[in-house]
Amino acid sequence: MAAAEACVGQVVLPGDVLLLPAHPDEDGERLRLGGGAAPRGRLLCGPGLRRCAAGLLVTKCGLLRHRQTGGGAAAGGAYWVDSQQKRYVPVKGDHVIGVVTAKAGDVFKLDVGGSEQASLSYLAFEGATKRNRPNVQVGDLIYGQFLVANKDMEPEMVCIDSSGRSNGMGIIGQDGFLIKVSLGLIRKLLAPKSEIIQELSQLYPFELVLGMNGRIWVKAKTVQQTLIIVNILEACEYMTAEQRKQALAKFSGN
Amino acid sequence: MQRGLDSQTKKQLEEEEKKIISEEHWYLDLPDLKEKESFIIEERSFMPCEDLLYGRMSFKGFNPEIEKLMIQMNSRGKKEEIEVDDKMEADVSDEEMARRYETLVGTIGKKFLRKRDQCVLQDEDEDGNSNTRPSKKAKRKFLKPQD
């Protein structure tokens, strides 16, 4: 048992309970409700945490993170555990790269790295109708979003947003190279103003697709250039910022 | 008499007992549960926590479509603010609007007149047209652009 604020940036283990400062809805406060107790914002309890009677229960090991200005309704800030793992667990709303493994009538089966294969309806593509089927073959890479993802049901993916537009989702081009990295590295790459991405973008023209399931698809003008990017991205996992800069300096001369 | 009363009270007592038993079947003698509003939202995704970017990226003009999409998707939060500002500025100024509608007053006015009145108006127009036509034609003449 420790106060959540004191643990920010420190290692937390499954079973730890983080205490939160008292809420204004507690009985003592309720009596002087007229006194103008400011309505506290809701607290966002992110991945690796679960709420319990005393506060927050830790369910993953990693570093506790906190952000004051949580997105949307969570004005009270957000806590989550920054953990290192390789196994992806589907989460609703996540963008992932899936590999088509089967075409079974109306749905495609996609391997997304989770415990179960995700299903993708042939109608969940931009501009698809019953007559106009998307041209999807077994082995194709698909960038999509989870519509249904919970522990009891088969995850379902779509390649359109709520307004029916694809917004870059759908089949990813034929060539290019797919690699698998840890989920922590993906988050590092997707963070706003990520140093790795900024340094790589100075090298030469290339294209990246990053899935939250740890898959990265890379394409550059030549196979050699593609492989250079791939090797740097894979090595980033175990390199410090300085080592990375040294490695990049070698290629920027070419 | 005494017996009769006894039987009545007995019946009443029995009924009361039955009621109590039947009520006990359906209700648990527990203190009322307090409803408490939760101030914690559970979220399984990293997206709202870490403000992650859109997963498709292109650099140095490799795929211009994706680069456009990147700007669009990664500035969603900021864009909304800009859009609000745009709405505040009127596309058409008040003066322009007034000038536009000045010419429409006659045409729309006709709509609300009776048919007979419209005919009179047209006749007047025709009478007037004989005078105005030449001037109109002069107006419509092709103007040579100055170099």
TrEMBL record, chain A:
Q: Recorded GO terms, molecular function?
A: RNA binding
| All copies of domain K Homology, residue ranges | 176-224
Protein localization: Cytoplasm; Nucleus, Nucleolus
Q: Which GO terms describe its biological process?
A: CUT catabolic process; DNA metabolic process; exonucleolytic trimming to generate mature 3'-end of 5.8S rRNA from tricistronic rRNA transcript (SSU-rRNA, 5.8S rRNA, LSU-rRNA); nuclear polyadenylation-dependent rRNA catabolic process; poly(A)-dependent snoRNA 3'-end processing; regulation of gene expression; TRAMP-dependent tRNA surveillance pathway; U4 snRNA 3'-end processing
Could you state one GO cellular component term attached to this entry?
nucleolus
Q: Which UniProt keywords apply?
A: Acetylation, Cytoplasm, Exosome, Isopeptide bond, Nucleus, RNA-binding, rRNA processing, Ubl conjugation
Q: Pinpoint the Exosome complex component RRP40 N-terminal domain residues.
A: 10-84
Q: Does the keyword Nucleus apply?
A: yes
Question: Can you tell which superkingdom this protein's organism belongs to?
Answer: Eukaryota
Pfam family name, one: KH_6
Q: Self-association or partners: how does it assemble?
A: Component of the RNA exosome core complex (Exo-9), composed of EXOSC1, EXOSC2, EXOSC3, EXOSC4, EXOSC5, EXOSC6, EXOSC7, EXOSC8 and EXOSC9; within the complex interacts with EXOSC5 and EXOSC9. The catalytically inactive RNA exosome core complex (Exo-9) associates with the catalytic subunit EXOSC10/RRP6. Exo-9 may associate with DIS3 to form the nucleolar exosome complex, or DIS3L to form the cytoplasmic exosome complex. Exo-9 is formed by a hexameric base ring consisting of the heterodimers EXOSC4-EXOSC9, EXOSC5-EXOSC8 and EXOSC6-EXOSC7, and a cap ring consisting of EXOSC1, EXOSC2 and EXOSC3.
**Family statement drawn from the similarity comment of this UniProt entry:** Belongs to the RRP40 family.
Q: What is this protein called?
A: Exosome complex component RRP40
Automatic annotation (TrEMBL), chain B:
Pfam hit, one: MPP6
Domain of life, source organism: Eukaryota
Could you provide one GO biological process annotation from this protein's UniProt record?
Answer: maturation of 5.8S rRNA
Biased amino acid composition, Basic residues: 134-147
- Region annotation (Disordered) maps to 121-147
Spell out the protein name for this chain. M-phase phosphoprotein 6
Native organism: Falco tinnunculus (Common kestrel)
